[in-house]
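Hey Z.,

So I finally got round to the DP6 thing we talked about over coffee. Here's the setup:
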Amino acid sequence: MTAPKAVTAVAGTNIALVKYWGKRDAALNLPAAGSLSLTLDRLGTRTTVAFDDGDRDRFVLDGAPAGDAATARVSAFLDRVRARAALARRALVQSENSVPTAAGLASSASGFAALALAATRAAGLELPAPELSALARIGSGSAARSIFGGFVEMARGESADGSDAIARAMPEGDGWEVRLCVAITAVGPKAIGSTAAMTHTARTSPFYDAWLAGVPGDLAAARAAIAARHLPALGAVVERSALRMHAAALAADPAIIYWNAATLAAMDCVHTLRARGTAVFFTIDAGPHVKALCRAADADAVAEALRAVPGVIDCLVAAPGPGARVVEAPGR
Ligand code: DP6
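And the result:
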């Protein structure tokens, strides 16, 4: 037996500015539309993978053995890596999120991006970034974007095998000093996971088709705003995309409601700041937290205002961050 070769990779989470909400294929996890995001320098995942002689895959999350469902999802992902590398060995996967998983902010985006990179390298594969993105997407759609840093666009793709449903970096956004202020409005995991919620929306919401029909226009507007570094133009798309995604989910039957009272109060705070002259715009994912996009120079004041909102527990300021990378690869 050769000593297990452990590889550690880190990835930042990303926040979608144009949301992904719906799939065109469940097995390959192909999105029904494109999306566009910003990878962050914090709220990420650090994952170490070592293939060894164990009789099954083990997944340790934030220092404790993960539950059966999470372990099965990781193991199914490793099956794809093993098939590609012609490898039979099981693995020990150790992941740490840079915010407690229980805060409801831990993300499958950074998790599967870090896992895709660490697992392929530990299996002896060196995949080019687009292939890594396609692989990460099978774990979680948003993870395809965290392979890359800064502004990132995810393609819907047309092919049945998913090879073109990949993300790409948008270098035209590099160096743009924006920030996302993440207002935490609750503790505990989200009420309904995004996979189940988007499937339920697609099946039961009369607004789902209208939601999808609007995405290409939002993507085009976001691309143009990023190329022009025009924050109000980008911000208009960001709020519209989030609200239309939530409108589709709210109209599902039964309804999916992610917001709480503090979510609405934080949205109102963002609008008040804007009315007073600060260029700040919110987005909301599959949970109650509010993320406010603004210029770096305004971030401290925006975060302070959000922290003062009743029900907001804390507000973290995140900057654009790099894509997934290997940080330790002993024996290499
Ligand atoms: C609201 O990527 O978590 O954050 O592909 O089923 O794992 P799966 O879904 P996931 O969905 C993300 C939903 C979102 C919007 C986004 O990140 O684009």
